[in-house]
UniProtKB/TrEMBL annotation:
NCBIfam families per record: PRK13662.1
Domain spans labelled DUF402: 18-156
Binding residue positions for Mg(2+) 1: N87, D103, D107
Name of the protein this chain belongs to: Nucleoside triphosphate/diphosphate phosphatase
Function: Has nucleoside phosphatase activity towards nucleoside triphosphates and nucleoside diphosphates.
Keywords, ordered alphabetically: Hydrolase, Magnesium, Metal-binding
Essential cofactor(s): Mg(2+)
Family per similarity comment: Belongs to the Ntdp family.
Catalytic activity: a ribonucleoside 5'-triphosphate + H2O = a ribonucleoside 5'-diphosphate + phosphate + H(+); a ribonucleoside 5'-diphosphate + H2O = a ribonucleoside 5'-phosphate + phosphate + H(+)
Single GO molecular function: magnesium ion binding
């Protein structure tokens, strides 16, 4: 697999199980890239939805993608703390300047006090039937929800305050 160059800008492209585009983040700065991990940062980046609508992110974010995990983590840095939005989805691939993954509808929102909520279970069930998610995907996703919850409770990886501090500082050095 290709690896993005640290310091470069890449797109993040989210797809649905049926291959249709779901959402595109126009620009994310690569802070770290290995064969298994991409950490990026962005702020006020344009986002395009599948229906063509566009909007701009409101705050700096640190993005965490791993090639072996069926979730990715977006840490949004706000005045009142760090909020996390975790997408349950396929492990990423990097192809033609874009980090790509399949979004499987389920999301976990984590608040600054580390409480969390599982979101979009109804959307997941609807799309599971509509797009024919195989049972093996359902099993993998449920196991990864459990793994993600363990990470949150243990303050592992991106859920560690030090993690966000380190990578946000690195992001800021690229802006100067």
């Amino acid at each position: 697999m290709d690896i993005p160059t640290e310091g470069s800008n890449i797109q993040i492209q989210s797809y649905k199980h049926n291959g249709s585009i779901h959402r595109i983040w126009a620009e994310t700065k690569v802070l770290k890239a290995t064969n298994h991990l991409v950490i990026g940062g962005n702020d006020r980046t344009p986002v395009t939805e599948s229906d063509g609508r566009t909007w701009i992110t409101r705050e700096p974010a640190i993005c965490y993608f791993h090639s072996d995990l069926w979730f990715n983590i977006i840490a949004m840095i706000r005045d009142n703390g760090i909020y996390y939005y975790c997408n349950l989805g396929s492990p990423y691939v990097y192809d033609k300047g874009a980090l790509k993954y399949i979004d499987y509808d389920l999301d976990v929102k984590v608040f600054p006090d580390m409480t969390f909520s599982l979101l979009d279970e109804d959307e997941y069930e609807y799309n599971r039937k509509l797009m024919g998610y195989p049972d093996v995907i359902d099993h993998i996703l449920k196991k990864n929800v459990d793994k993600l919850v363990r990470w949150i409770r243990q303050r592992k990886g991106p859920f560690s305050p030090e993690f966000i501090d380190i990578w946000y500082d690195r992001y800021l050095t690229y802006l100067n």
